[in-house]
Amino acid sequence: MAERAGGRWQLGVPVIVASHRAPVQFRREGGRRIARRGAGGLVTALLGLVREIPDAVWVCAASTEEDAAVVAEHRGKAIPIAVGPLPRIADPDAHDEPVAAIRMVEIDPAAREDFYSVISNPMLWFVQHGLYDLTRAPNIDEVEHEAFEHGYVAVNRAFADTIAEEVESRGGRALVMLHDYHFYLVAAMVRERCPDVVLSHFVHIPWPGPDAWRVLPPHMRDQIFAGLLGNDIVAFHTERFARNFLLCAQELLGLPINLDKMTVQYGPRTIAAKTYPISIDVDALEEVARSKAVRTRLDDLETWLAAEGGKLIVRVDRTDPSKNIVRGFLAFERLLDDHPELVGKVRFLAFLQPSRLDVPEYVEYIGRIGSVVARINAKYTRGGEAPIDLRLHEDFLTAVAAYSICDVVMVNSIADGMNLVAKEAVCVSRRNAVLALSENTGAYEELGAFAVTLYPFDIQQQADALYIALMMPEEERRERLEAAAEIVRANNVTKWLDFQLTDLAEFTGLWSWKPTRSS
């Protein structure tokens, strides 16, 4: 019987993980090869799986010229990566460091542009986050149809072929775990070539109801659904997203579904829609929060708060329209309009990482953010101190420092698959921060009862909620924070993976699996 023993998963079946984002990226700096770990909670979670399962391999995209050079050096085969704090190609003679096998897929640049910048972003992203103004966009014509066939389909085929090679090299019997919206077609392609494979696909972004998908022509959406129905399990962060998926299969494809069992029948096969809310590596985050680097960054923030008797609102996001950043700043402006006694006493610190600058909608959104911030700062700057401190770059260490001493963390997304900022903040706060959380985030299902709710399109309500959060009594702040942090610590990334492996074992019967749920 397979089990998790000694901190390692023992499945008795090979595992192949696939995502567009790589756990490591190679670049040339000063003539030297530099390896940098991929960002995000998904990378952390999947690295924990791949490095702890014998013969597991992670299939991902080669996204830089140096990635391609590394692929060539390894003749297209899996690359052993030492996945410590400073990732690097593993020394074959070293046996005392965790190693993950990484298989990078090279993609034709033109196909990659169509796959990523025309179809995946913005089209699929905008459909699934409800971002289109349908009176104006999308305008789907020959460009988008060509991009779907020669970009999205072609890249999915390249990944499916690579995954199938890995499955066949392991005797044709393996567990394949696909991730996110880039690879909706892969499962059906792999199953056609490897019929004995077990397939799961985790969708990390929202899954809307049937009407949202009618934006896409049937030629596109039918292939997307047929591809996903090649899996044994399709997984989501929330029950709402899983239910929406089944309703789409029923309404758009005419398939029989069972909402009690959360399944859909596709020909002779039964596919389950499951819910597994992803979490964070709490221990690693707390170690960062205790580090000297974060302590140094705390000094300036604490000096300002102590000198002014001030309060601090923090947000950490990518400059993605789905994050609702502009309305968040408008709500802060309304807060100052309604409560002039807070002017000069409340500061809004925003860490915004520019994102997808090859997509016009994202470039335009950054311009709107800058314009709104400049206007609010001109209106409310007092004594040379601007109320909004906007930092347009990634600075994780300073963000962690800000989490630890802020009064309010604002997450007002239009739509979000999960939002790990909310989970990070409640675990490292030392000032009993109040979480101001959009009801449209996946995190709301777990943490909403202990947050101040934000309705993302209602600016007045958001302003009022920020005021409630800032003025909340200390005891209530502490109780809410402790309850939220307890949930995040209990539902850690190990448990997230355990539940998936358990359900896959039970649903497919391919292998036996007994997790250690207390790990």
Automatic annotation (TrEMBL):
Q: Which CDD domains match?
A: GT20_TPS
Instruction: Identify the InterPro entries for this entry.
Output: Glyco_trans_20
Protein name per the record: Trehalose 6-phosphate synthase
Mind listing the GO molecular function terms for this protein?
Answer: alpha,alpha-trehalose-phosphate synthase (UDP-forming) activity
The entry assigns this protein to a family as follows: Belongs to the glycosyltransferase 20 family.
Task: Provide the E.C. number(s) assigned to this enzyme.
Answer: 2.4.1.15
The enzyme class is transferase
List the GO biological process terms.
trehalose biosynthetic process
Q: What are the record keywords, sorted?
A: Glycosyltransferase, Transferase
